[in-house]
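May I ask you to review the protein record following this short note?
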Amino acid sequence: RIYYKIYSSYIKAFQDISRVFFFFFKQKTAYEISACLVGSEMCIRDSSQSSIQNMEKSKEQVTEGKSAFSSKPYYTLAAFNVLSLVMIKLENPWVALAFLYSVMPLADIYLSQDWVNPTKEEAKVLQKQLRYKVAIQITALLDWVSFIFIMNYLITENISLLNRIGVIILGGQLAAASIVIAHELGHKRSTFDKVSACLILSKSLYMHWFIEHNYGHHRYVATPIDPAFSRIGESFYEYLPKVVINGLKSSWKIEAKKMTKIRGFKTPFVPQNKMIWLLLSDLFLFPLTMYLIFGLSGLIHFLFIAAIGVIYLESVNYIEHYGLERKKIGHDEWEKVDIRHSWNAPHRISNYILLKLQRHSDHHENAYKPYQILCSYEQSPQLPSGYTVMILLSFVPKVWFKVMNPRALSYKKYEKIIPEEDVASQEECKKFIRTLSALIVPIVLLGYIY
């Protein structure tokens, strides 16, 4: 209790400081709220009747943490940060990468799935519990420790080219994984959380994504207007340049519209425009900081890490809504977002490391829901495997199309997946990961030799 009181006081004090230094995050206009909030703000699809007895039972269950609602699994990403630092120090980052590319995907495939949803009574208790926020704050702190350690290691240690490449890839993976934390914090209302989200995104030079995701993507998801819209038959390599360029344009348009039509300024070029500050930071301030601290070599290494972070972030956007599209009902108007417009996956390890991002339909229907009470629905489109597998699969278009195109076409026609096709796609995922695992083992051994 004392720890929680101290932690709460720290958060409150930092919020007050953040409001002074980051004044342009302070206000949320009606335009922003309507663009961000889709569906009801708290909509648990649970038909059970509330009762005092159930409420007391739920409170006791979730407080003890002996149920499916323990906060401990959400330290998985923090544990992977620690593992990464240990393996880098032992001069073989490929072991950590093998864990990420082989062990986690295989665990996703063979472990039991996570379909447990909180009841309304349990959700009311869970959303107020500080332990879930502590988990992501500790992970965010460890992420910065990892980033600084990796940058310093790359410019001070004399390591082989193979292991240097491994450290850069691992650094990019950690930068991408931390965006999950930024995503969760970016959907919060507090200034402190929003600023924390932007600072995490700064490691990938992608702070404008905060604006596009919240106020663009969530408004136009599964429509051609959304920069992250991925069509059936469109490879990730066709999608990537489009989403990066259009995402930047969309972020500017959102802020420009807010400045001129909502805030009443004659021009969008005013200090209150967040995009000016975010672009200044991404293109100049943060790279300059890296150069001043770590030198030219450090800056070059950092740019590679940032690029890898962006690639993996956009690969997640690519798979989350691949081939899914809302019906157009008027000029620039589409049907309401619901649980049919995002791909989901009940695979356990991915849910732990990505803070239940795979329960993506519920997230889009209820943008402000904290991760610990997001729900899975069988009616939502389901991926044949977890994100740890599907992200890697998206990098091989031939296999990706073979697995996903029949599934996407079926959901687009509101047809059920044929059981034989479902099993075949799952087997294709298993085969892909087994092949990747066989390829990475020699690289791990080479990492020890050289």
